[in-house]
Inverse folding.
């Protein structure tokens, strides 16, 4: 039970990173973006490529950081991956979403996001194979924290939680302390009014994609590190990330962060009662409960 | 020659069944502007419902009520409609993309439950033990398949006529009026929520009919038949055919199903053995490209809807995104 809760919080940090980006995009551009989860797998695979590259260029980078299976090379690769995934999110917007958006047809945006997701997922499968990979072949041993109740945590999981919290703190500071953060929130509240005040909307949209893409890449690397890397990461994380965004209320960054942890917890606790085969259904059950009890989420507001 | 003929019969049967599902989607998306991300679930509810009701008794899973095919088919349609009603009630009054997320979730969960609930659906092995209607009297050959095709084609035409009639009826005008300008319709005392729910449930019942026919044709259904790719295929059919146009929807179904089977055949014939494993990925990329490509370059489809409204409210009906 406690083990499930600990695991839930740890995986919850990954969901939270994914959901923050998703909720920002959904709030700003007003469409359910089914491509977002694929950015997690894009991020995981870009990091895989650069991890291999850095390790072969400078074998010294392959040393592990403390008790983690995370290496210096992988940390560098993660930063590169965050930048490149952020850039690809902007490119996808330029190529597809912006052009459809300009026609003002929101329904088509959702359809297009499914289409893009299908293409991305299967192109990744074609390039990297359909099997699973790992960043490090070494087995990461779990540390026993207590014997009664039995509680085991892998050092990687703690590190992931820590870095995820730092990333969220940075985002919080940017949104609440900088002029850019104010501009971002102003646009989300009232785009026309923000524009009157001289805010460049195009730039804000790019910024939202950059933030969403970077956080998604981090989440993807963390997922790969604590589970495994497969081309279907996006498919598997799609519903948990959506559930987290809906639990928090679409548009609420803090809600999405909370929602991530809640969904992680709830999904792991559900496994206490449900057979594990049903775990893909759990995020949907959470969405249902939220839609029945509090349709606009914990921190969301009603919007047309 | 006989081989080709029986393949044509087989192909047309499946394409006609899918065309019925596309017609159902057209009512939801093309006419009412509702996003259904879980076509596979409503199709599957029809298929599973019909096979459970119409099958012979089985030990491993529920079912084996042995009802006549017509009754089983209606039962499957009812199952699909009930599913749509429950989730429509919950989501249709919320932000429009909640329906997309919820229906997609329905499909994921439906497939997951069918795969795991051994007692209900036979789990991953699916549902067997279904006697195809009149199989005993007619035998299993080409003539039987031709007769099944005739039945499917008749139901396709009936569905088409029903929807054509519906779109010319006051209800059809109301659906389009709400799609084009919700507030104007509301000011005339109409309830958009009720009309949307009716359209959503009706479309899903039609998908359930398609699912029941599909299950009856193969006399078998398994979780493999209700994967999300089915939803994407049916969307592609509607997008290619042109949302809003029923004849276009049927043409789109035949075109995309033809392209799908042709690409599958070509890949299995010409692709090197090592690449065979990836044939599915390539086909998925093709479907994704069709969806994205059509939306970018020909959003009205190959056979666009002839607008029956006095002016197109395209830009008024969707709130503009905050960006740009």
């Amino acid at each position: 039970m406690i083990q499930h809760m600990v695991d839930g919080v740890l995986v919850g940090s990954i969901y939270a990173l994914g959901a923050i980006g998703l909720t920002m995009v959904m709030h700003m551009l007003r469409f359910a973006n089914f491509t977002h989860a694929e950015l997690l797998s894009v991020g995981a695979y870009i990091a895989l490529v650069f991890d291999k590259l850095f390790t072969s260029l400078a074998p010294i980078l392959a040393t592990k950081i403390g008790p983690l299976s995370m290496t210096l090379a992988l940390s560098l690769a993660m930063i590169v991956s965050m930048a490149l995934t952020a850039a690809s999110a902007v490119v996808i917007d330029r190529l597809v979403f912006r052009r459809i958006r300009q026609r003002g047809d929101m329904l088509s945006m959702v359809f297009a996001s499914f289409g893009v997701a299908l293409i991305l997922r299967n192109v990744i499968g074609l390039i990297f194979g359909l099997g699973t990979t790992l960043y490090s072949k070494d087995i990461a041993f779990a540390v026993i924290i207590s014997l009664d109740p039995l509680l085991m945590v892998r050092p990687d999981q703690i590190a992931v939680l820590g870095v995820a919290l730092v990333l969220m703190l940075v985002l919080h500071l940017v949104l609440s302390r900088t002029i850019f953060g104010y501009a971002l929130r102003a646009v989300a509240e009232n785009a026309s009014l923000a524009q009157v005040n001289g805010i460049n909307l195009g730039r804000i949209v790019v910024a939202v994609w950059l933030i969403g893409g970077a956080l998604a890449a981090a989440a993807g690397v963390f997922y790969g590190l604590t589970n495994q890397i497969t081309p279907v990461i996006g498919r598997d994380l799609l519903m948990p990330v959506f559930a987290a965004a809906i639990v928090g209320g679409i548009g609420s960054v803090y809600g999405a962060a909370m929602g991530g942890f809640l969904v992680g917890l709830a999904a792991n606790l559900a496994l206490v009662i449900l057979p594990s085969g049903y775990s893909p259904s759990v995020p949907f059950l959470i969405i249902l409960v939220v839609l029945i009890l509090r349709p606009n989420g914990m921190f969301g507001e009603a919007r047309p | 020659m006989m081989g080709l003929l029986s393949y044509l019969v087989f192909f047309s049967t499946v394409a006609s069944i899918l065309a019925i599902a596309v017609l159902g989607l057209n009512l939801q998306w093309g006419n009412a502007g509702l996003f259904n991300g879980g076509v596979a679930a409503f199709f599957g509810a029809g298929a599973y419902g019909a096979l459970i009701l119409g099958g012979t008794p089985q030990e491993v899973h529920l079912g084996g009520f042995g009802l006549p095919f017509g009754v089983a088919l209606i039962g499957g349609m009812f199952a699909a409609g009930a599913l749509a009603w429950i989730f429509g009630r919950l989501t249709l009054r919320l932000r429009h993309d909640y329906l997309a997320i919820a229906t997609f979730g329905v499909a994921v969960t439906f497939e997951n439950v069918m795969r795991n609930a051994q007692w209900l659906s036979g789990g991953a092995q699916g549902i067997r033990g279904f006697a195809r209607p009149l199989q005993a009297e007619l035998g299993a050959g080409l003539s039987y398949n031709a007769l099944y095709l005739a039945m499917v084609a008749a139901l396709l035409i009936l569905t088409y006529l029903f929807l054509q009639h519906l779109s010319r009826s006051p209800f059809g005008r109301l659906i389009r009026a709400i799609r084009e300008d919700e507030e104007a319709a509301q000011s005339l005392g109409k309830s958009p929520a009720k009309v949307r729910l009716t359209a959503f449930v009706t479309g899903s019942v039609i998908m359930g009919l398609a699912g029941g026919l599909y299950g009856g044709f193969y006399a078998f259904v398994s979780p493999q038949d209700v994967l999300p790719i089915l939803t994407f295929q049916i969307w592609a059919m509607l997008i290619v055919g042109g949302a809003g146009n029923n004849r276009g929807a049927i043409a789109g179904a035949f075109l995309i199903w033809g392209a799908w089977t042709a690409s599958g055949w070509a890949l299995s014939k010409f692709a090197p053995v090592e690449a065979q494993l990836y044939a599915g990925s390539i086909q998925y990329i093709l479907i994704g490209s069709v969806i994205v490509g059509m939306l970018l370059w020909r959003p009205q489809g190959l056979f666009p809807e002839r607008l029956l409204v006095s002016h197109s409210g395209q830009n008024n009906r969707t709130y503009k995104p905050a960006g740009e």
Summary: Chain B touches chain A through 51 residues (CB under 8 Å). Chain B has 14 helices and no strands. The two ends of chain B are 59 Å apart (CA to CA).
